[in-house]
Amino acid sequence: MAVVRHLKQLLSDGTLTKLAPGLYSYPKETAFGKAPPEDGKLVETFLKDRRFLLASPNAYNTLGVGTTQLYDKTVVYNHKRHGNFSLGGRTFDFRVRPSFPRTLSEEFLLVDLVNNLDRLAESKKEVLARVRERVPTYNVRSLRRAAHEYGNVRTRKFFREALSTESHAD
């Protein structure tokens, strides 16, 4: 029982911050107050695993395919947890995937956008048309590999067709 008492004391005096059940942070003090934990460290501690990829649907906006919406959650591709979890006042959308890259690339983001088309606020038809227009600007081998490794069935089919019409246009 002493552990529980000490934990409550550390929480009440601000030494520790509770982020989620069983997950606590010892926040660093900055000139602006207590700094929140880094997303990567927070997710790593929550999962007890370093194999994950942090992504944001906001990154789709950099691809030039007409997406403009801003989203307030971070997607975590991982091998263990599935669902939405609030950690430290932030929402993380954990999605179990058999494979994902170690780092984000434009090719992965484009494939991920098509995978998650149903979750977007924009017109699916317009976004797909713009993605098809942008395909020629990408490295064909990298895009083909990303679609094969990370795309769902519908996404692989879309890129197979988009890439084959592109090779016929040459």
For the largest beta sheet, what order do the strands appear in spatially? 5-6-8-7
Strand content: 15-25%
Helix content: 40-55%
Number of strands: 8
Descriptive key words:
4-stranded mixed beta sheet, 2 domains, 6 helices, two-stranded antiparallel ribbon, 19% strand, 8 strands
Short précis:
This protein is an alpha+beta fold and about 170 residues long.
What does this structure look like?
The chain is an alpha+beta fold. It has 2 domains: 1-35, no CATH class; 37-169, no CATH class. Helices cover 41% and strands 19% of the residues. The protein has 6 helices and 8 strands; from the N terminus they run αββββαββββαααα. It has helices at 2-12, 39-47, 106-115, 124-134, 140-150, 153-169, and strands spanning 17-20, 23-25, 29-30, 33-34, 52-55, 73-78, 83-87, 90-96. α3 crosses α5 and α5 packs antiparallel against α6 (153-169). The longest helix is centred in the last third of the chain and has 17 residues, at 153-169. The chain is elongated and about 70 Å long. It starts with a helix and ends with a helix.
Topology summary:
Blueprint lengths: L1 H11 L4 E4 L2 E3 L3 E2 L2 E2 L4 H9 L4 E4 L17 E6 L4 E5 L2 E7 L9 H10 L8 H11 L5 H11 L2 H17 L1
Parallel strand pairs: 6-8
Antiparallel strand pairs: 1-2, 3-4, 5-6, 7-8
